[in-house]
């Protein structure tokens, strides 16, 4: 979800009336498996004293905030261009003339 927010997902508004133009998933690109390269998940064996009896702890969508920032910082390190909005598109990374 964080990678999608950083690279693909965009809500577009009609500047005249303020209505959303991207109202459904047909016009709103959400990344699929083919859009994302291999992602390695690392499981930690540390005991969390605040976890529930199943050993789980819900954090909801707040956990994706760091992923978006990591992608944008990786783009900065790779290109030297600091993106100031998401989604980051190729035209934002090209030199301005």
Q: Can you count the helices?
A: 3
Q: Would you report the number of β strands?
A: 0
Share of helix, binned: 25-40%
Order of helices and strands: HHH
- Anisotropy-based shape: extended
Beta-strand content = under 5%
Largest sheet: none
The end-to-end span amounts to 33 Å
| Rounded radius of gyration (Å) | 18 Å
Structural class: mainly alpha
InterPro entries: AldOxase/xan_DH_Mopterin-bd_sf
Protein name: Aldehyde oxidase/xanthine dehydrogenase second molybdopterin binding domain-containing protein
Q: Care to describe what's here?
A:
- This protein is mainly alpha-helical.
- The chain has three helices and no strands.
- The chain has helices at 2-7, 65-79, 90-93.
- Helices cover 26% and strands 0% of the residues.
- This is Aldehyde oxidase/xanthine dehydrogenase second molybdopterin binding domain-containing protein.
- It comes from Barrientosiimonas endolithica.
Features:
97 residues; mainly alpha; 3 helices
Write the layout of secondary structure elements.
Blueprint: H1 2-7, H2 65-79, H3 90-93
């Amino acid at each position: 979800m964080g990678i999608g927010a950083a690279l693909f997902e965009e809500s577009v508004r009609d500047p005249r009336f303020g209505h959303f133009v991207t109202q459904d998933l047909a016009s709103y690109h959400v990344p699929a498996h083919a859009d994302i390269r291999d992602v390695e998940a690392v499981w930690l064996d540390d005991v969390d004293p605040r976890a529930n009896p199943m050993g789980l702890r819900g954090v909801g969508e707040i956990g994706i905030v760091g992923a978006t920032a990591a992608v944008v910082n990786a783009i900065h390190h790779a290109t030297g261009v600091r993106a100031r909005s998401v989604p980051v598109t190729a035209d934002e990374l090209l030199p301005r003339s």
